[in-house]
C-alpha cells in the first residue's frame, strides 16, 4: 500500500468518525449513517490494499525477487 493510499484512507476514516459524531450530537441519522459508511469504505480499501501487498510478497518469493 502506498503512502498516498494510507493517508487517503485514514483521512476518509477520520472524516467518517467526525460525521458520525456530528450526527450523534445533532440527532441527524442520515449524517451518522454517512459517517459509518465512510468508515466502512475506508476499512474495505485498507483490506484490499493488504491483500495486494501480500500477493506481491508471494509473487516476489516465487520469482526470486
UniProtKB/TrEMBL annotation:
InterPro entries: CsbD, YjbJ_sf. Residues 1-20 have a biased composition (Basic and acidic residues). SUPFAM superfamilies: Hypothetical protein YjbJ. It comes from the Bacteria. Residues 1-52 are annotated as: Disordered. Pfam families: CsbD. Residues 5-55 form the CsbD-like domain. Belongs to the UPF0337 (CsbD) family. This is CsbD-like domain-containing protein. It comes from Gordonia effusa NBRC 100432.
